[in-house]
């Protein structure tokens, strides 16, 4: 595990600003999505990116790993992928007459689970222990994963051919879910005029080291959250449970996720305390993939309903 180091507030602001600028040089015109992804990483959680193919999901994942100097592995999820292809497998060694465990690609710091919903639920569930406990148990032996450990999964829209919906237990392991969307006209023009994005990623320098990232994550946990803000978070959680729009409301784990992400968003803005606006900024990313729309309201979009939820709960 990397050793932590002390970073001054001034150095923290410079490092985070440089990191955001570096990622923005690759992912054009998506400042909010970049800030949400950085908040998820600073909060120590896992990120689900759901969007159409070709809008930059994989590119964002590669860029984040590069600027943080983290070891990176990519798994292309397909319908015939097996859990052992993710976690690893024990192979019999004829020389010493014993089984030797060969680590799978999950033993890394940033794991890109590309098109995760193209694999079967059995393979999807192979990541549950890794994402929750940061460890892998195979053949009765538990092995710790590297630190920090961060899963970025990309997901195609469920209406596309050959997809399997992620089970609720799997979705709940993702701290946040974001969509990237099409770039605006100016950003797309810059994209067409610019260099190959993968070549540009190779030229990126590490801005925040793994040990510095661990220190920043510890600082995020110390970001002050007043009693009034906690009451506001509880009001949002309870309102989702009472709302007729959803089959069931947000769980206690979702409440903890909202707390962590709000702290990280405030920290990213250079503050040592959380404001109601911080909670509102991250709530769609934290809540949308955890809520199921009631059949009577299927004509509405989940993001619109989360916005209505924010508007109806007084600060």
Q: Secondary structure elements and their pairing?
A:
Blueprint: H1 9-24, H2 31-42, E1 47-50, H3 57-67, E2 72-76, H4 83-87, E3 88-93, E4 98-103, E5 110-114, H5 121-124, H6 128-133, E6 135-138, E7 141-144, E8 150-155, H7 168-171, E9 176-178, H8 185-193, H9 197-203, H10 210-221, H11 227-242, H12 252-268, H13 276-287, H14 302-312
Parallel strand pairs: 1-8, 1-9, 2-5, 5-8
Antiparallel strand pairs: 3-4, 6-7
Helix pairs in contact: 2-12, 3-9, 10-12, 11-12, 12-13, 13-14
Summary, kept brief:
By secondary structure, the protein is an alpha/beta fold. The chain has helices spanning 9-24, 31-42, 57-67, 83-87, 121-124, 128-133, 168-171, 185-193, 197-203, 210-221, 227-242, 252-268, 276-287, 302-312; strands spanning 47-50, 72-76, 88-93, 98-103, 110-114, 135-138, 141-144, 150-155, 176-178. The protein folds into 2 domains: 1-221, Rossmann fold (3-Layer(aba) Sandwich), CATH 3.40.50.300; 222-315, Helicase, Ruva Protein, domain 3 (Orthogonal Bundle), CATH 1.10.8.80.
């Amino acid at each position: 595990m990397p050793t932590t180091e002390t970073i001054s507030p001034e150095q923290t602001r410079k490092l985070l600003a440089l990191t955001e600028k570096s990622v923005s040089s690759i992912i054009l015109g998506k400042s909010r999505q970049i800030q949400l992804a950085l908040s998820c990483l600073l909060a120590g959680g896992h990120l689900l990116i759901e969007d159409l193919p070709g809008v930059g999901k994989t590119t964002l994942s590669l860029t984040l790993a590069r600027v943080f100097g983290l070891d990176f592995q990519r798994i292309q999820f397909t319908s015939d992928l097996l859990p052992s292809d993710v976690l690893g497998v024990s192979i019999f060694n004829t020389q010493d007459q014993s089984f030797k465990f060969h680590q799978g690609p999950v033993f890394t710091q940033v794991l890109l689970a590309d098109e995760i919903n193209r694999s079967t639920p059995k393979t999807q569930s192979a990541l549950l222990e890794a994402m929750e406990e940061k460890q892998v148990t195979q053949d009765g032996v538990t092995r710790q994963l590297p630190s920090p450990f961060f899963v970025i999964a990309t997901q195609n829209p469920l209406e596309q051919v050959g997809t399997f919906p992620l089970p609720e237990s799997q979705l709940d392991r993702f701290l946040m879910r974001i969509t990237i969307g099409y770039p605006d006209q100016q950003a797309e023009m810059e994209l067409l005029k610019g260099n190959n994005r993968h070549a540009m990623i190779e030229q990126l320098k590490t801005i925040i080291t793994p040990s510095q990232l661990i220190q920043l994550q510890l600082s995020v946990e110390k970001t002050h959250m007043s009693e009034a803000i906690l009451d506001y978070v509880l009001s949002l959680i309870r309102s989702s449970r009472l709302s007729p729009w959803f089959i069931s409301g947000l769980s206690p784990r979702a409440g903890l996720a909202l707390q962590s992400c709000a702290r990280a968003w405030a920290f990213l803005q250079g503050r040592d305390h959380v404001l109601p606006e911080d909670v509102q900024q991250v709530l769609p990313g934290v809540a949308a993939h955890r809520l199921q729309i009631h059949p009577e309201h299927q004509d509405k979009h989940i993001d619109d309903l989360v916005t209505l939820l924010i508007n109806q709960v007084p600060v």
